[in-house]
Every structure is written in structure tokens, then in C-alpha cells.
Amino acid sequence: MKWVLAFSVLFVAxxxxxxxxxxxxxxxxxxxxxPDCRCSSSSIPGGLNPRDVPQFVMVTFDDGVNIINIExxxxxxxxxxxxxxxxxxxxxxxxxEYTNYQLVNELYNRGFEIALHSISHQTPQTYWAEATxxxxxxxxxxxxxxxxxxxxxxxxxxxxxxxxxxxxxxxxSFQVMSDYxxxxxxxxxxxxxxxxxxxPYTLDYASTQDCVTPPCPTAAIPRVWVLPMISWxxxxxxxxxxxxxxxxxxDLNSEDAWFRFIVENFERHYLGTRAPFGFYxxxxxxxxxxxxxxxxxxxxxxxxxMQDVFMVxxxxxxxxxxxxxxxxxYLQKPCRSFTPTxxxxxxxxxxxxxxxxxxxxxxQICNVCPNTYPxxxxxxxx
Length: 382
Ligand SMILES: *[C@@H]1O[C@H](CO)[C@@H](O)[C@H](O)[C@H]1NC(C)=O
Ligand SMILES: [Zn+2]
Description:
TIM Barrel, disordered N terminus
């Protein structure tokens, strides 16, 4: 009986997944219109002139949040304000293991964006390349629940996904996003469409973007957004999607050389068509190289005074693309708002875990303690 049931559940799940998959057609510009559809392209949304486009800068940090790296965030990100007097944004793509959810709650209550970077973040990278719909559901749909539960964040404020190692998983991650109400993916690097840069687009129709870490999606998955990671160019012109993966870097001890390097990459966007500029980095890099950290701070200080540049949460870029108002109108808009939450703090542990019998875990959370350490298949640790 149990077997029959398990079998039919699997069968229904597979049938559902199959049903939704249709190969995407070439994009039909007439049929695909904002706010809910956009063809992959480097044309500026709304047909705006570059000088009328707010230049968005997306600073993002990946991986776990803990008592060490929060100090960097408090020091260099908190209390920043754009020239329009709105708080500057930053997006955190957070994976579960060793994350301190009380600190995630703090980041959320500072107005930053909390996004998903998987529960397991496991190696090898081929796990992600070969991941199925079910794997991606366990990693991301369940992480959305986990994050909302333990960090006490409204579930619909969690909108973004970045897959570990920037490894695409074909249709699977996007299907899960569509089924579990996740707005955008920020995993997909481009090395060819950087000048002019490609703008965010939806997967209603076939993407024309280069596929750096295959498999890339080819099915039609309506209303899910791709927020492409437009690569930087290092000193030898080699593309790098994450700043800390650039190879031919300036001297890691030279703040001036790093500042020039950052500005050169920024100007490719700002002096071009103003496609959103990504500053994608891991905290360990700037804590290892203080000169890089100082250069980054100097860059943020500079853009926070520029009248047409805005450091924002990544989802704000999607919001703007859906409704691409000109700079002068953008400047009249109220600042983003969010619903503050409390953190009923618990310190939990030692918690045993099914995936790692050798270690016990402690968790700092905003909820009652779980029974075991949350993991794949048991996101609330029941
Ligand atoms: C994605 O879906 C399309 C349409 O069904 C299919 O042709 C393609 O092989 C799928 N891609 C992967 C990597 O499974
Ligand atoms: Zn990572």
C-alpha cells in the first residue's frame, strides 16, 4: 500500500513537471511586453535614452552570515544613503549551513534584501549541473520556508535565487521558482553581452544569452526573470562574474589601483547604455585584502553622491525594468519600504544532524528551537 502510494505520488509529480515543459520559441517582441514579459536583449527598457536611465548598482554578498562577516557589513554597508536620500541597498545570497538567523533578521530590518543560495551548498559542482526538479525544490523552495521561519522574514519578501558556484541547472531551478513564487534568478553570467550589457528578461520565450555554465534553460517558463550577471573584465580583458574570481587583478595591496579597476568596469555601464552594474563579491575577499575593501568603500562613497546612480536591492532592478520610468520621474518616487519584524531570539544546540553525524550544530534563530539541524528534506528541523 505504502509503495503504491509513494509510486503514484512520484508519478503525479513527474507528470506535473513534464506537462509544464514546452520548448521556448524565439521571442516575439509584439506579444512579449512589459511588465510581465521581456525578450532577452541589450535594448534599454522603455526605449529610454541612456541619460534618462537611473544607473543601478547591485552590491551582493554570497554565503553564510555569521558573527565575523556581519562586522564587515555593519562597517561598510549600514547607514549608506543614495543621493536621493533613500537608503542604499545590498542583496545577501545566503546558504543555510552555519548561518546565524538572528543576524539575517538584523540585515532584513536594516532594509537589505535576503535572497536564497541553497540549503546544502554542496560539492561537487556536478551535483548542481545534474540537479533535478526535486533536488532544486529541496534546495530552494524549502530554503524559502526555512529562511522565513528562522529569520522571521515575511515569506513574500524572499524573491531571489543564486545557485552555488554559478552553476546553472537547465530548466529545473526556473521551474521551481515558477511553482514556488520566486521572482528572479541571479546565477547566469554573460561574457559576451557586456558592452552594451544585457538587461533582465523573462523566460516566456527563448533566451539568446550565452551559456557559460551549461545546462541553461530552453523551456518556456513564463514570468520568471533572469537577472544576468554581467561580467567585469580583468586587466587582461578576461571576463569574471564575481569580482573575487577575476584573475589578472590589480595589486591586491594597492587601494588606488583597485579603485581605478572598479571605476573602469563601472564606466563601461555608466558611460554606455547604463545596464545594471553588479558588484558581486564574497566578504572573505575584502577581509583578506584590506586595500580592496578600502577601494570598494571609496567606490560606494563616490556613487552615493552621484545624482543618477543608485545602489539598490537586486529586486528593485526588476521592479524598475517592469515599469521603466525616466530618471527625473524615478527621483520623485518614495524610497522602498518594508515591514519590520522582531526577532524572538533562541539559541539552540547542540543539534544533531542527519547529513553530518560527526558534528553537532548550534543555531541562533528568531523562533522556537528545532529538534534537529534543518537540512534537505527537513527544512524546519522537525
Ligand atoms: C528543458 O526543457 C526543454 C523543453 O522540454 C527540453 O527540450 C530541454 O532538454 C530541457 N533542458 C534540460 C537541461 O533538461
Ligand atoms: Zn556560495
